[in-house]
Amino acid sequence: MNYSKIKPTKKNPISVVNGDTRDLIKSLPDNSVQCVITSPPYWGVRDYGVENQIGAEPDIKDYIKDLVEVFSEVRRVLKDDGTFWLNIANTYTSGGRKWRQKDSKNKNRGMSYRPPTPEGLKKKDLIGVAWMLAMECQKEGWYLRNDIIWHKPNCQPESVRDRLTVSHEYVFMFTKSEKYLFNQQAIKEPTADGKSTRNKRTVWSVNTEPFPDAHFAVFPPSLIEPCMLSGTNEGDTVLDPFFGAGTVGLVAKSLNRKCIGLELNPDYIDIINKRIS
Ligand SMILES: C[S@@+](CC[C@H](N)C(=O)[O-])C[C@H]1O[C@@H](n2cnc3c(N)ncnc32)[C@H](O)[C@@H]1O
């Protein structure tokens, strides 16, 4: 696709493009976006119901390879002083199950496929997929600058009896260079006594927010606001290569940033446009 059709403008600051991110991202020029904020599909957790969806690879190695390839394109299009914020969680092996029933509280958890247990792991093992991916990105040349814990005070209850309920995910902050745009002042937090401010800490307590139109977890805007505020100035462009319901676009609009969103599922494009307008 021609970049002139994708490039956000003052008149149309949020540009939404439907297609496979692996193809679309190739149309974006080198060093053209200031910041990338994204949450890719997690491995074997959701069925987005579209061909070529990432996350449905039977082998976890292929999943990591697919994402690392997308993120190496992300590195190409990111400006040298840009930041890349990646939200991802660890998951458990499916224990040999071939499908997952709909949950009475969360009907969208139903899945027609479950990936097999990765080589070397066992039934019930926690797969450190978030860290596997982070380490691969580091090998590819990314600087890993922070592992932020997204603590979810209102996390989904789990019916497990032999381990703790998982109430966190990660937001990895990567950069392309040693020195980069990071507006620390914009995201300072109050000290415990409330009398002054301090550098923002790496545990962020943010409630998940329901979004009935989408069949997947969307970003709570307050999770990504600090990423955008510290990683960009007004007027800069932010990219989300897995746009989903377009939360990054929504936040970009509210903070006077431009945004490019790439999304595979054509059904989500209407949801995004409705939400952003
Ligand atoms: C976790 S959701 C993103 C949710 C988003 N952060 C939000 O707040 O709405 C991941 C998205 O990636 C999309 N996706 C999966 N494979 C893709 C591909 N190959 N190209 C583009 N998008 C893809 C899915 O359709 C889904 O909408």
What does this structure look like?
24% of the residues lie in helices and 22% in strands. It has helices at residues 3-6, 21-24, 60-77, 129-139, 221-231, 247-254, 266-276; strands at 14-18, 33-38, 78-88, 91-92, 126-127, 143-151, 168-175, 189-190, 197-198, 203-205, 237-240, 258-263. Helix 6 links the parallel strand 11 (237-240) and strand 12. It is globular and about 50 Å long. The model has no long low-confidence stretch (mean pLDDT 93). Bound molecules: S-adenosylmethionine. S-adenosylmethionine binds at residues 20-22, 39, 41, 48, 52-54, 216, 218-219, 242, 244-245, 247, 262-265, 268. Residues 20-22, 39, 41, 48, 52-54, 216, 218-219, 242, 244-245, 247, 262-265, 268 line the site of S-adenosylmethionine.
Q: How many beta-strand runs? A: 12
CATH class equals: Alpha Beta
- How far apart lie the N and C ends? 24 Å
Instruction: Output the helix-strand order.
Output: HEHEHEEEHEEEEEHEHEH
By secondary-structure content and strand pairing, the structural class works out as: alpha/beta
CATH superfamily annotation: Vaccinia Virus protein VP39
| Main beta-sheet annotation | 8 strands, mixed
Give the strand line-up of the largest sheet. Answer: 1-12-11-2-3-7-6-10
Number of domains: 1
Shape call: globular
The average pLDDT value, as a whole number, equals 93
Portion of residues in helices? 10-25%
Strand portion, in percent?
15-25%
Low-confidence sequence ranges: none
The CATH architecture would be 3-Layer(aba) Sandwich
CATH topology: Rossmann fold
List of distinct ligands in this structure? S-adenosylmethionine
Number of H- or I-type helical stretches: 7
